[in-house]
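Summary for the funding panel

The consortium committed to producing paired sequence-structure records for every protein in the target list. Below we show the first two records in order, beginning with the earlier of the two.
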Amino acid sequence: MIIKRLYHFLGFGMLLVGLGLPVAAQDVIRLGTELEPPVLDPTRTASASAGEITWCNVFEGLTVIDGQGRLQPRLATGWTLSDDGLRYAFTLRKGVRFHDGRPFDAQTAAFSINRIIEPNSANPQKVWFGKIETAQAKGPDLLIIQLKRPDALLPFALALPAAVMVHPDTAADNGAYPVGTGPFRFADWKRGHSTRLERNDMYWGKKPALQRAEFIYMQTAAEKETLLAEGLVDGLVSVTALTNRFLIRPDFQMIPRRVEGKTLLAINNARPPFNDLRVRRALAHAIDRVRLSALYGPPFKPELIGSHFAPWRPGYINLVNRYPYDPARARALLRAAGVENGAPVTLKAPPTDYGRYGSLKIAADLEAVGFRVEVEPLDWRRWMSEVFEQKNYALTLIVHIEPMDLDIYARDDYYFNYNNKAFKAIWEQVLNARSESELLHWLGEAQRQVTEDAVNVFLYMLPELSLMHRRLTGFWEETPIPSIVLEDVRWIDP
């Protein structure tokens, strides 16, 4: 799981309206972001923050999901699949080197894949690669991946940050000193302050316009106000509508970012009374998603969802109206399930603004149908420990940002505690699909199953904008992988 924070800044005053503030040199960019990664190696952490900085900048995969949401070759130039669906052959790009000068070849690619699937692997997306038997080099430029069972989604999985290519001599140290093949190389990490990247002048592809990029971690609203007002950052990676007062500054602009953030009220399906389907469906009817999504205000228009799937992806099924807002129906379902009026429930809220403010709105809706709700704020360390790892929770409001992550509902040990043979059978059909039409059909069936089971309350797609200096261009407007890809970013003349 990859989890994404939504940034929300309050209290900007007149100090923000000054003009003529300094900007970075024409080949340098300084970006403000809130969540500092625990490590810089996305193969070692479930936090999206590592990949946001290093994916497609420092590290690259065999494939990539590009800025238009398309699956494309990256360090591979192409691939074929055997007739029985059990053998992928990837042709690798020639002349690629890691930042320390070591060559990238089929041996290092095989090492990277086998490292993911080894028994003691801590890779956060290991489950995506469970059908791989082995990866082997056949010469310097040909990688063979042998499967135990067919997996139609493997080329997509190889585009995830957790599947980037690493070298055996440097893999152990990538958490603090990442060495990849990308257009930028790691320069410095000042813990608690910033991470700096520099252009990789021996990059195999197009040379970036930027010489240096610095990601500055900003923990408080005061820091954000001050750094932006004094011209010490050139943009904020993600903002909510409550910062749109920045639009009074003609030197900055809001840039839309379409992300894969599925916002949901996650439910512990094993904890009474939520192990009862009627109770979970009652929650779905109890929450006013339109009112909840209005939290963001204009210009944000969050798109409502009815399952765990982005509306713009092929295979999407519109299930938004499966559980319309209906408090009376919710109360009737709770009575039928024997849930007493005033039943206590704790809603654990992550330290984001959708978590803090959205949880209060959801609590009000649940209390209106008979629950007595306590909202318990958690920091990220406690959320990861108590909710994600220990599954010690009843309800939590969270955003899942990873694309095409319906597979999490087939995992027995996932924090939803959802164990459904019917869904697992459907997901096997997804993986075994041998045509696009077959794949899309079974993706639709998977969406229907989790919605009918009301595994979670599916709310809306996370709305997101970035605030950037008007002279900056080249950012990806669609970010199916949570990332700040810099390869095309440049300053333009005034």
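The next record, for a separate protein in the list, is shown here:
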Amino acid sequence: MALLQWAVDHGAQGVQFSGLDSAWQRRVDPSYLDDLRAFAESERLYLEWGGAEHIPRDMTTWGHRDLFAANRAVAAQAARLGAAVVRSCSGGQMRWHDAAPSTETLLRDTGTALLAQRAMLRDHGVVLAIELHFEFTTHELLRLFEMCDADPGDWLGVVLDTMNVLTMLEDPIRATERILPWVVATHVKDGGLRAVSNGFETFPTAVGDGVVNLPGIIRRLADSGRPVHLSVEDHGGTFVLETRDECFLAKFPDLAADEMADLEALARHAMQSAVCVPTDRAHWPEICEDRMSRNIVALKAIVTELGMA
């Protein structure tokens, strides 16, 4: 409840819950959800729920897991909240781990697991929104949706993370255009990438400090004609992409030369900026609240400049 009050106090229009840890999940009962919903409705806040997963594997041991019961529980929670979107993230970084199954194997596993949940998700009236995290690229998600015989606006969708696509070697504008019909939620996050000895390093920044073309992305979302909430995400840390290693680069078979050229241009732009720099993850708790507050103001300014306020 304190988070919802913080959103109200800082001029936000809603909250997307990425997910709750096991201790919080044990505290989630119908009355808790009813209280959240009542507060949100009284303050006219949108709510988007989280906690779902889509890759039916333990992302450390790679053993098989059954996700149906856990996803059914969060779908039921979302339905009680009146939230139409449930964010799904399995947290995997399989391309960075040689012991991981191939991406194609994980796509097939994911497709099989999701098909088994289709009727359940429809019954709850929610869309399972797969975050563009460090698991699948937009190219791969389009293949996954085809495997699932899914259509945009039905039971599967995407949380468009505007910065994470850089870490998956995708230009943010190109990635948005590829996956646009499937976007049902967002993580509006600015960021940068820069050349390092073994390839690229990517990182989030405050809104307006990075090289992500947020106005271009937001304009495309608006032109889609579908209501998609702009939810800010930010954090510290960096991610290394060993693109000089041919074996690592081969794990991104859909990456075309012209898109790599776009990424290299973004990296040059970032290197020329005094503000496009990473934040030490250890320092994030100290600056989180202030930066998120500034991010909300900056995002609202972009929306106003686009004539969409």
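Regarding this second record: The longest strand covers residues 46-52. The chain has a mean pLDDT of 97.
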